[in-house]
Amino acid sequence: MTERQLVSAEQLTVQEMAQICYQLATRAYPNGSPWRQATFMADLALTTTHYELLWWQHDPIGFISRSTVLDETEITNIAIVPTYQHQGHAYWLLTACLAQLTAGTVFLEVRASNLAAQRLYRRCGFKRIAIRHAYYHDPEEDAWIMRKIIN
């Protein structure tokens, strides 16, 4: 496999998917995974969530998760391991996720200091609509709330 491939959560057990997502998040986020493996397992058990792994050259290198209720979707995680960052993988993963949505509003949060992610989200049509003060911890930081409307 030399091309990008999406693997949905339904193709693995909840335990396998939670473990892979936890490991990827631990590698991808500078301060480690913001969620424990048990949190991923609980989230995967919900009927409103959808997870997809990004595979590249035989290995999982990232994932995206979302929660949808009626016509509102929240991107809850998007992570690419550092070795593969800044190579278009996050853009590909996010646009593939957005292409699966037919209409509605998509929300996400991003650290105020995460300029690369903010550029990615703006490139994909997200706009900043609000700030959540002191939302993130380790270190404490504001979150930008961003929104994209899909027609």
From TrEMBL:
Enzyme Commission number, as recorded: 2.3.1.266
Cellular component aspect of the GO annotation: cytoplasm
Location of this chain's protein in the cell: Cytoplasm
Primary site of residence: cytoplasm
Keywords: Acyltransferase, Cytoplasm, Transferase
Example GO molecular function: protein-N-terminal-alanine acetyltransferase activity
Pfam families: Acetyltransf_1 (PF00583)
Catalytic activity: N-terminal L-alanyl-[ribosomal protein bS18] + acetyl-CoA = N-terminal N(alpha)-acetyl-L-alanyl-[ribosomal protein bS18] + CoA + H(+)
Residue stretches making up the N-acetyltransferase domain: 7-151
Family of this protein: Belongs to the acetyltransferase family. RimI subfamily.
Task of the protein: Acetylates the N-terminal alanine of ribosomal protein bS18.
Protein name as annotated: [Ribosomal protein bS18]-alanine N-acetyltransferase
